[in-house]
Amino acid sequence: MIEQAKSFLQEYYGFTSFRPGQEEAIQHVLQNRNTLAVMPTGGGKSLCYQIPGLTLEGTAIIISPLISLMKDQVDALSSYGIAATYINSSLSFEEQRDRIHDMKRGRYQFVYVAPERFDSSSFLSTIKQIKLSLIAFDEAHCISQWGHDFRPSYRSIVQTLYQIPNLPVIMGLTATATQEVIRDIKKLIQVTDESVVNTGFARENLSFRMIKGRDKRDFILEYLEQRPNESGIIYTATRKDADHLQNFLSKKGFSAGKYHAGMTENQRKQVQSDFVQDEITTIIATNAFGMGIDKSNVRYVIHYSMPMNIESYYQEAGRAGRDGEPGDCVLLFSGQDIHLQRFLIDQSMMGEEKKKDEYQKLQSMINYCHTHMCLQQYILDYFADPTHTEPCGKCSNCLYEGEEKDMTKEAQMV
Ligand code: ADP
Ligand code: MG
């Protein structure tokens, strides 16, 4: 069957060879073994469930956390001539009903749904009646309460799943998982050690930079002036910061849009599509922006202040360079960032145990801002990446930029 999988790679996608981990993951699934694929962003995780979905008989159910993500995937599959659809709350009731009806008749090879869909009885009874090829959890870290993006509905599906009589092979796919999260996912979707495919998280094309003790706005002005036509994202910790910075940059004549949860859905859609179509080059956003955006030519991601943990940082910074071309990831650190993040954890509705966990993660983030080791190595060590040992040679610590600044500052204090 792997031969057939290879010919699908050529036939449908026009690719000549598999990327690291893809063939192995596909092979496990085709041997009917529940599989967890841990691969970096842009590593090609979609193919790992799509090719088995094409090879095996029946309908593949893909569980995906974001509605915008589903449409892109379905459009891509449709453009290859593959019968795919999504069923979610963005559709009218009639449309949902029609699609479920078509699904019952086995019309689709791929059906994308949000986790909440499993609460719907018509959907559940349908998937119990049809032949399923596989069930895939995209962004599988959402399943774990130790993941930074935990979705209770993701976890409750697991209980529902095991009541399905015709349960097919199950897959999990993620780019951001600590060892703890990996353990959790394995337990929940019953993956053995042999069926974990972990290619590591390293993104060789990204360069990390830590900037301290500079005026953040000045830095950004200078930075953008040097990159007039490049696409990039600037992440702020608060909506207010996003508003102010966008205002500031627009006044200076830069083509900058903003994106945060305080805007209307239409406004957000507009900005997003302007950005994806290169109508605007820079987007200033809170962490509400990004998960569903598949823009491959993002050249830089600047963090205007330190995020809450390494998982979020790496996921957001990782939106740079998805096309494999160089991506620049800059973090602008100031001591006040720490107070803000502590405050946000304090004020959150999390339980005590979860808060403790978040404080620990925050501490690792703070340590990242102060470390003298290779920044890429620090991140990969954090995720206990077994595949990576060499310093990257191009982050600000490898190039000693950060250290020099620190020393002058310390020297001044002395
Ligand atoms: P991920 O979900 O891991 O972030 P995607 O599945 O979205 O990554 O794939 C990222 C990009 O890589 C897509 O544009 C995809 O077409 C491309 N890609 C995937 N597999 C291959 C391959 N074997 N050869 C060439 N390009 C590939
Ligand atoms: Mg993906």
From TrEMBL:
The keyword Metal-binding applies. Residues 216-366 form the Helicase C-terminal domain. Transmembrane segments: none annotated. Its EC number is 5.6.2.4. It catalyses: Couples ATP hydrolysis with the unwinding of duplex DNA by translocating in the 3'-5' direction. Residues 26-195 form the Helicase ATP-binding domain. Coiled coil: none annotated. Belongs to the helicase family. RecQ subfamily. This is DNA helicase RecQ. The lineage of its organism: Bacteria, Bacillati, Bacillota, Bacilli, Bacillales. The gene is recQ.
